[in-house]
Amino acid sequence: MKLIRYSCCVLFLLFCFCYLYFMQGELLAHAQYVFSHGVTHYSILIGAIIITLVLQGLQWVVARITRLPSRFYALSYFPSLLALAALTDLSRQHISDATFDPWTWLAPSLLILFICVVLLIKRVASAFPNNDASLSVMLWPNYLLLFAQMLFCGISNSADDVFLYELKTERLILEGRYAEAAEVGIRAEATSPRLNNLRQFALSRMGEGELPERLFLYPQPYGVAGLLVLSDTAKSQERFTLTDLTARLGAHTEAVNMPVEDFIRQALRLQTSHLDSLLAVDSLTLATATDSLRHQHRGAVATLRRQVRTMADYHLCALLLEKNLPQFMDELPTYYPQMYDSLDAVRATLPLAYRQAIAIVAPQYSDDATLTLRENYVNMLDTLPATGNSRRNLSLYELGRSYWWYYDFQK
After folding, report:
1. Contacts of residue 223, Cβ cutoff 8 Å, sequence gap at least 6
2. Among 90-94, 258-262, 326-330, 341-345, where is mean pLDDT lowest?
């Protein structure tokens, strides 16, 4: 009997903690933030430990009350796993509407059914005692029962993968872990405008040129509209809102009704104008200023330079997403003058998406390595079916994501 109790306890604790920490922590953190209106925050590690211990305590109470036969001891975990299933069934709609359907009626019904099953088992066990059963005969029914209850808990969750990707990316951004945020769901085909929005912001914060370097490694079904989701106005349900995002980019969100590309262009123009005005301060004025003011001036100039470069990448990427290559070629040298450098190694330092776009429209300015890859890409396309979705899907499978694939196949 002790082996059954201890082994079931270990299996339950492992499942419960891993389920809460690795799979459902983001949902619970978001739900607590929304339901508390941002007043309290949920720690994924501490929360997983506390909930696991509470549910184990609930099982201990149920086991003491029901005193189930050893062969069916694992049934005492049903109320705990039912509570875990109800607690973690937090879809986007459930959190938004603060509803707990269908658990308001399903949980009481299942508890009544559990009580009936327990009474039936105890009645049958008292009528037909089986004290000579071997240990294996006692263990396997318990393990199967425990596994079935864990499976029920897992499949009862209705949150979709994209929602979980959004929440994890949002949390990592808030923690300043931009490289990890950019990796969330990178191999998944499913995405959303907000997930793209968060990913691209994370890329822009990873370092200079990272946004155009890796932008087209992700699915971009929304085009330029997915680069910056201006309709995502500040909501209490989001820990990282549009206002937060644009503030870090050094832009303003008052005019959110304009097209995305116009908003980015306006923000870039204002930042450039502000930077020019700071750089126009003459050396005599700076020389006569206090050390504190000179330090503030240098800091403001450095910050604005970073913001201008970041917003320039947003602007150039918007042109690529619109497939507006002529304007892209006109404006690229303003921010990346190495495009016209005579040295192939210097041109190869351009971000990946820019090099691939140049290879399409102006191969004379492209570096040799990119031209070779472009030639291989075109040759591979020639071996695929001429039309239809099969050409689109096979090219993605064979060649992977790139700006070339986006330019040729993304509508």
Report:
1. 321, 322, 410
2. 90-94
